[in-house]
Amino acid sequence: MSDARAAAGTGPGADLAADFGAGVRAAVAAERRELAEVFESLPVGDWGAPSLCEGWRVREVVAHMSTGFRLSLPRMLGEMVRARGNLHRMTDRVARRDAAAYSPDQLCGFLRDNADHPWTPPVGGVVAALAHDVVHGLDVTVALGLERKVPEDRLSVLLDAVRPRDLRFFGVDLTGVRLVADDLAWSCGHGDAVSGSAQDLLLVTFGRRLPPGRLHGGPSSRFTTR
Length: 226
Known about the structure:
Blueprint: H1 3-8, H2 12-40, H3 58-65, H4 67-70, H5 73-82, H6 87-101, H7 104-113, H8 125-141, H9 152-160, H10 164-169, E1 177-181, E2 187-189, E3 192-196, H11 198-205
Parallel strand pairs: 1-3
Antiparallel strand pairs: 1-2
């Protein structure tokens, strides 16, 4: 490919990138629609149950999932100013406020009606948007003991994108540990093996602690709730 075509973003490489992006966008929309159905089927009592997101109930997680659709950039910046620039403080306050302000039906509607919304997190683009929905969906379904299986193609995209800087951001220490999926050809790290389903290991890479019995191997207790 000529330098001119590369600079213009044309040619086979650009076509592959566009196809990949379109495929991930479709996966994001499908994930949101499927999760809206899952959440709509939850008993009322489950909305107050704890999730895998420390300190958040199911209500806060689902409210947080739609924040990017509902808050304009100026409003988001205003929330950041009120939180004195602390992203975690801002997202926590907004999630708690919105969980109290909206009913479960409304929260599900925000997710379902915005399945094709182009929102992405500040860093990571469309793959980060897919991770946002998949991981928070698992925060709910795993915590509630639901047997929802994330499609393999979505998990593969997210696991292939795991990088050391992401692990550091989420406070994940894999020193002496090798994560090994028992249902996909994927592993990460070096050392004693910790095995589990691909979606459970994805949660580990995002700093979640899992319920007992889902991971196997000597160091697995490092990533399990006590």
